[in-house]
Design brief:
- The protein folds into two domains: 262 residues, no CATH class; 50 residues, no CATH class.
- Helices cover 42% and strands 21% of the residues.
- It has twelve helices and 14 strands.
- The strands form five sheets. A five-stranded antiparallel beta sheet has the order 4-5-6-7-8, with no helix packed on it. It has a three-stranded antiparallel beta sheet with strand order 3-2-11.
- Strand 2 and strand 3 form a beta hairpin.
- The longest helix is centred in the C-terminal third of the chain and has 37 residues.
- About 2% of the residues have low confidence.
Length: 431
């Protein structure tokens, strides 16, 4: 297959990735895959199956969960310290208008979803920049090369106003002590290299591939278990249960009238202006209505799966508890999510730091690079009443000044990049 070849680990994992990606993209993607996610009932025609699928409801718990977790991290701006020349690039870190903060949000989302992605440090004639690649785009990797799938816009040569998107491959090659980039596109004769790039740093050819592969908690390209796999599979299972429940409701929700003891060709009308005159006393009229436990079992299954999704991280799908949940209970319930999220945050943090260090080296500038992402995921800002109590305790000598400032820091009254020592110094200057 040549450049289109997939790594065996990619082939073994791509079905999991597809389920998660479809789950995240929502109802249209799930329903668009038809019987892959919703098997046809026995004997259903195409029209009946389409109606069966249309009535089903897909609850996108995975998208809500990822957005919520990323929001919990990014509610406090990352602390970024880089040399001045690199700082000027942070507002457009990708050279396409994406800021570093937005790039970090994208990486957190991808790492939570798939547990695997990559960053390519690249440059044009003017500046270095970063490009993010999803796990599906990193199709093959060997000891001396990495293959990345990209989309590009192909212009119709006969009509410059008409275009479509096609696939190309970017091959990152380490050839001895040289780093080379080959761009492949497909033509009638097959795949061909349309561009060969030899990246340099101030005229000196690069020796290593500047690609940072992230998988799980480390820098590598071997697929790990995606953090959202269980949530995705539960959501798809809930979608199937919803299809059966709505299918049953469709046929049982409306009472059906029946009449016995009349001619089969009789025409009967229902309404306030009509009355049925039955021929003899043995005739009967009434309504057929559903009774039994079948739909209740499906409704119970829906609630069980909704609760499972909540325990897997989709708290937004779980209804509010009737009682007040204790702080200890909340902490215990969130331990798994927090543990996973901390691992994701630290992995992305290290990857961004490495990418910024590479950019600084390419620009020939020295200086420390610091990347510190928020790991305090719960808003713990001090309210007005607690603030007054703290101030009163300090003023009355009940707590020390250091303890007062510690609680100010913990309660997010002090700026994220301000230490207690910094604040004490500022107070001394004001005095």
């Amino acid at each position: 297959m040549g450049i289109e070849s997939r790594h065996p680990h990619f082939v073994n994992t791509q079905e999991q990735w597809q389920r998660i990606r479809d789950s995240f993209n929502g109802s249209d993607s799930i329903k668009g895959e038809g019987e892959s996610y919703l098997p046809r009932l026995g004997g259903q025609s195409n029209d009946e199956y389409d109606s069966y699928k249309l009535r089903a409801v897909y609850y996108n718990g995975i998208e809500r969960t990822v957005r919520g977790l990323v929001g919990a991290v990014m509610r406090v701006d990352p602390i970024i310290e880089v040399p001045k020349k690199i700082e000027a690039l942070l507002g457009d870190i990708t050279n396409t208008g994406v800021s570093l903060n937005d790039f970090i949000s994208y990486m957190l989302s991808e790492q939570l979803l798939m547990g695997r992605q990559g960053i390519l440090v690249d440059r044009d004639n003017e500046r270095p920049y970063l490009t993010g690649y999803s796990t599906e785009q990193i199709t093959n990797w060997l000891d001396d090369r990495i293959i990345l799938e990209e989309n590009y816009r192909r212009i119709n040569k006969d009509d410059p106003y008409q275009s479509d998107y096609d696939i190309q491959y970017r091959e990152l090659v380490k050839d001895g002590n040289s780093y080379i980039v080959n761009v492949w596109q497909k033509f009638d004769a097959g795949w061909q290299i349309v561009e060969e790039i030899v990246p340099t740093r101030k005229g000196t050819q690069l020796t290593d591939i500047p690609f940072i592969g992230i998988s799980g908690d480390g820098f590598n390209l071997s697929p790990s278990i995606p953090p959202m796999l269980a949530l995705s599979d539960t959501g798809i299972s809930m979608y199937r249960t919803s299809a059966d429940l709505e299918h049953g409701r469709h046929f049982t929700a409306l009472p059906t009238p029946y009449v016995t003891g009349i001619d089969v060709d009789s025409e009967l009308k229902i309404g306030s202006g009509s009355a049925w005159i039955l021929p003899d006393s043995s005739s009967r009229a009434g309504y057929l209505e559903f009774s039994g436990q079948g739909l209740q079992a499906l409704e119970k299954a829906m609630e069980e799966k909704r609760s499972m999704m909540a325990s897997l991280g989709a708290q937004l799908l779980q209804s509010q508890k009737a009682g007040i949940e204790s702080a200890d209970s909340i902490r215990l319930r969130q331990n798994a999510e927090a543990s996973t999220l901390v691992g994701v945050v630290k992995t992305v943090e290290r990857a961004i730091k490495q990418a910024l260090i590479t950019m600084a080296e390419w620009e020939g500038v020295a200086g420390e690079v610091v990347v510190d992402l928020n790991t305090d995921f719960v808003d713990t800002k001090i309210n007005a009443q607690d603030m007054s109590s703290l101030m009163g305790a300090w003023q009355s000598g009940g707590i020390s000044h250091d303890t007062f400032l510690f609680n100010m820091k913990k309660g997010e009254i002090l700026a994220p990049d301000t230490t207690i020592e910094d604040e004490k110094g500022r107070i001394d200057l004001d005095v």
